[in-house]
C-alpha cells in the first residue's frame, strides 16, 4: 500500500492505495467520481481521459501513485470553466452525443484542442480527436461542435479563454477554477400569477394521467415536464390537502420529510430507474397563493453517492372542474449536474416522470377518500421495475404504430 495525496477538482484527496491502482479506478472507486468512464483499459479509446496538471492523460493506464501531489480534473470539475461551458452548449446544439459514454473524455480532449490550437481547421480537429473513439455519432457532430467554439472565439475573443491560452503557451497548468463547496439550502420562491378561469367542461371524476406536454428547455434553466391528474373531490378540499407538505410527501414514492419549520422543509427523495439509483438530500421552500389555489416548491439537493446535484421547481395549481371534481396541473422544471446529468433528457426518464405524476395523483385520491379521523395510509410504495417496463412497452407500441 502507498500513501497518496492529490488535488481532485480543487479538493484535497488522501488515502492508502495499492501501488498498481490505476488513476481511473482510484477516481471511480475511492473518490466516487464516476463521470470518468473505463472501457478498453489499454489507453486506446480515450473514454477515461482526465486532466493531470492541466494536460489530458489516459487514467486507465496512469498509476494513481504517479499523480502524488498533482492536480487532477475530471468531468465533474468544469462548472466554472469558460471553455467547457461553450463546448457543452455546442455538443448539445450540434447533436454531438448519443449514448454519452465517450462524452467525458471527448469533452476533455476538445477543451485541450480549443486551448492549444485556436487556428485549427476541421482536418486538424479530426486528427486531434482521433485518439477518442465514439461508437455512435460518426464524429460529424463532435467535429462541428469543436469547430463552432473555435470560430466563435475567433469572431469574439473571450478574456477568460485568452488567459487560459496564455497560461498554456507559457507551460503553466490551465486548470478550471474550482467550484466552491456549498451546502444545498432552500430557495426563495416567487409567487405565481393568478390561475386562469376553470374549464367549463367537467373532467372524468377519476385520478388519471394527463396528456402531458413534451419536455422543453426553459430559458436555459433546465428541462420542463408538464402533466396533471384529475380527482373526484371539490377544489377547496383538494387545495387544503395539497397545502399540507407531510401529507403530500406521503403520496410521493421515495419522499421523506425529516424536518419542517413552517413552509421550509428538509428531507430526501430516493429514485430508482432501471440500474440507476440515487437518494437526493436537501431542502425546499413552499410559496402559496391561497386565492389562486396555486403554489411553487423550490429546492435543491445532492446525491451522496454520485455527488450529482439537482435543482427543481415543482409548480402546481388546483382547478375546479365541477362542484365535485378538480384537476391538479403540475409543471416540473429541473436541472441536474454531475454524473446523473446524462439521464436528465432521456425520453424514457421523461415518460417515467409523467407516470410518477399519475401515480402521485392516484395516491392523492386514495388519501382524500379516507373517512374523517381515519389513520393515514402508510408511505406510498410502488414497483420501479414494473413502471419502467410499462413505460418501455408503451414506447415499443408507439414505435410500431400502436396506441400507448
TrEMBL record:
SUPFAM superfamilies: 2Fe-2S ferredoxin-like, Bet v1-like, CO dehydrogenase ISP C-domain like. PROSITE patterns: 2FE2S_FER_1, 2FE2S_FER_2. Keywords: 2Fe-2S, Iron, Iron-sulfur, Metal-binding, Oxidoreductase. One of its GO terms (molecular function) is metal ion binding. Pfam families: COXG (PF06240), Fer2 (PF00111), Fer2_2 (PF01799). Residues 2-78 form the 2Fe-2S ferredoxin-type domain. The keyword Acetylation does not apply. PANTHER family: OXIDOREDUCTASE WITH IRON-SULFUR SUBUNIT, XANTHINE DEHYDROGENASE IRON-SULFUR-BINDING SUBUNIT XDHC-RELATED. This is Carbon-monoxide dehydrogenase small subunit. It comes from Pusillimonas noertemannii.
Amino acid at each position: 500500500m502507498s500513501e497518496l495525496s492529490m488535488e481532485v477538482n480543487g479538493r484535497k484527496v488522501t488515502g492508502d492505495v495499492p501501488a498498481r491502482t490505476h488513476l481511473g479506478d482510484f477516481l471511480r472507486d475511492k473518490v466516487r467520481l464516476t463521470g470518468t468512464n473505463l472501457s478498453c483499459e489499454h489507453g486506446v479509446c480515450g473514454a477515461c481521459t482526465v486532466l493531470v496538471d492541466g494536460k489530458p492523460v489516459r487514467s486507465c493506464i496512469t498509476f494513481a501513485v504517479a499523480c502524488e501531489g498533482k492536480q487532477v480534473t475530471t468531468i465533474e470539475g468544469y462548472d466554472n470553466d469558460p471553455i467547457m461551458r461553450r463546448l457543452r452548449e455546442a455538443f448539445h446544439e450540434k447533436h454531438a452525443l448519443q449514448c454519452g459514454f465517450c462524452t467525458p473524455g471527448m469533452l476533455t480532449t476538445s477543451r485541450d484542442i480549443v486551448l492549444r490550437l485556436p487556428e485549427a481547421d476541421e482536418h486538424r480537429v479530426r486528427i486531434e480527436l482521433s485518439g477518442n473513439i465514439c461508437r455512435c455519432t460518426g464524429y460529424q457532430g463532435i467535429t462541428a461542435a469543436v469547430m463552432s467554439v473555435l470560430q466563435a472565439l475567433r469572431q469574439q475573443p473571450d478574456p477568460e479563454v485568452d488567459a487560459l491560452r496564455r497560461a498554456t503557451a507559457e507551460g503553466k497548468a490551465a486548470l478550471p477554477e474550482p467550484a466552491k463547496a456549498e451546502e444545498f439550502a432552500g430557495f426563495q420562491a416567487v409567487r405565481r400569477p393568478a390561475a386562469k378561469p376553470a374549464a367549463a367542461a367537467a373532467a372524468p371524476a377519476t385520478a388519471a394521467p394527463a396528456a402531458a406536454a413534451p419536455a422543453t428547455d426553459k430559458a436555459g434553466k433546465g428541462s420542463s415536464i408538464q402533466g396533471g391528474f384529475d380527482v373526484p373531490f371539490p377544489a377547496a378540499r383538494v387545495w387544503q390537502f395539497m397545502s399540507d407538505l407531510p401529507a403530500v410527501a406521503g403520496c410521493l414514492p421515495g419522499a421523506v420529510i425529516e424536518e419542517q419549520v413552517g413552509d421550509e422543509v428538509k428531507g430526501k427523495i430516493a429514485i430508482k430507474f432501471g440500474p440507476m439509483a440515487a437518494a437526493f438530500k436537501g431542502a425546499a421552500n413552499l410559496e402559496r397563493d391561497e386565492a389562486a389555489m396555486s403554489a411553487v416548491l423550490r429546492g435543491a439537493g445532492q446525491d451522496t453517492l454520485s455527488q450529482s446535484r439537482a435543482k427543481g421547481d415543482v409548480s402546481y395549481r388546483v382547478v375546479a372542474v365541477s362542484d365535485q371534481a378538480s384537476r391538479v396541473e403540475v409543471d416540473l422544471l429541473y436541472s441536474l449536474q454531475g454524473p446523473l446529468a446524462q439521464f436528465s433528457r432521456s425520453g424514457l426518464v421523461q415518460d417515467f416522470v409523467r407516470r410518477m405524476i399519475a401515480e402521485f395523483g392516484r395516491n392523492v385520491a386514495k388519501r382524500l377518500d379516507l373517512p374523517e379521523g381515519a389513520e393515514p395510509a402508510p408511505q406510498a410504495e410502488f414497483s420501479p421495475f414494473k413502471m419502467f417496463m410499462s413505460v418501455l412497452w408503451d414506447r415499443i407500441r408507439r414505435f410500431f404504430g400502436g396506441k400507448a
